[in-house]
Design goal:
With about 300 residues, the chain is of the alpha+beta class. The protein is built from 9 helices and 7 strands. The protein has a 5-stranded antiparallel beta sheet, with no helix packed on it. The protein has a two-stranded antiparallel ribbon with strand order 3-4. β6 and β7 form a beta hairpin.
Length: about 300
């Protein structure tokens, strides 16, 4: 079947996008859909966090005061992480270090920066870190699941070749050459002279995984939460597990210099293991405290 040069196709689902736009133009200025999606996700996330904070009778002013730091240091951390693991390129092209509009924000870098900033902020404002981070988690997951659709519009963050039900076919000319590996080149699809790559839509996989995490965290917060910081630990386990698998499918991974180890996979594995251990220790401690209380009562 010919698709008449359409930009993007899901061949097994019958979905065809003739023209793939990734921005709107106002005057002489282009506004990227990625930025719009992230901005909307962030605002919705703030409202969710505010609602959870009010429910827990927390200081919502302190929470809103943190958002400016979250934006600044989250973006800086995400960019720094990306640059550090692409250092050879940026040493040769220093003028590109701050070219964020061209892409290059790593979610793990943003999370690390935000956590460090929040620890310092809570210390200064005399707030409980566990409480603050927990109310931010649902909004973070929502922002992540929405943000991956920005990757979709940019035709990036996809996986290797597949012919599965969800396979996504992208016009080769829309994709940065560094994202196209040898396997994709060996499986090029040519339709009426137009070259396509056919890939795993990893943006979709991660978005759906984050949707599961978002729903689970909200349910757990209402029904099961036992201590401050628990939602953060559960988030790290859920997101880290999904990211470890999805990262293994991608063609644009960051690697530890001089190795074939994917940075995000290594970090995901470490985060999951540490979070599981901390969670196990906390549950054991709570169980012991409960037993001690029963002994005192009896």
């Amino acid at each position: 079947m010919s698709y008449n040069g359409a930009d993007l196709i899901f061949p097994h689902l019958g979905i065809v996008i003739e023209k793939m736009k990734n921005h709107i133009t106002i005057g002489n200025f282009d506004i990227m859909y990625y930025g719009i999606i992230i901005g909307v996700g962030f605002m919705i996330g703030m409202l969710i966090a505010d609602k959870l904070a009010a429910k827990r009778k927390m200081d919502t002013d302190a929470l809103w005061g943190f958002y400016s730091y979250l934006i600044i240091f989250g973006v800086l951390g995400a960019r720094l992480y990306y640059v550090l693991f692409n250092l050879d390129y940026y040493i040769q092209n220093p003028n590109k270090i701050f070219a964020i509009r061209e892409g290059g924000l790593a979610i793990y870098g943003g999370i690390i920066a935000v956590v460090i900033t929040l620890i310092i902020y809570c210390s200064k404002k005399k707030q409980k870190f566990g409480q603050m981070i927990d109310v931010l988690i649902p909004g973070l997951l929502l922002g992540q699941l929405m943000g991956r659709w920005g990757n979709f519009f940019n035709c990036e963050a996809f996986g290797r070749y597949t012919d599965s039900l969800l396979a996504m076919r992208i016009k080769r000319s829309l994709v940065s050459p560094y994202m196209i590996d040898e396997e994709l080149l060996n499986n090029l699809i040519i339709d009426n002279g137009v070259e396509y790559i056919q890939v795993h839509p990893t943006f979709l996989y991660e978005s759906l995984w984050n949707l599961f995490g978002f729903i689970f965290i909200l349910w757990y917060e209402r029904k099961k939460q036992k201590f401050d910081g628990e939602l953060f630990l559960l988030y790290m386990i859920i997101y880290g597990t999904g990211r470890y698998w999805i990262e293994g499918l991608r063609t644009d991974s960051l690697y530890i210099a001089g190795t074939s180890l994917r940075v995000s996979q290594c970090l995901s594995a470490c985060i999951v293991i540490v979070s599981v251990i901390v969670l196990f220790v906390k549950y054991r401690k709570l169980k012991q405290e409960k037993c001690n209380l029963k002994d005192e009562v009896s």
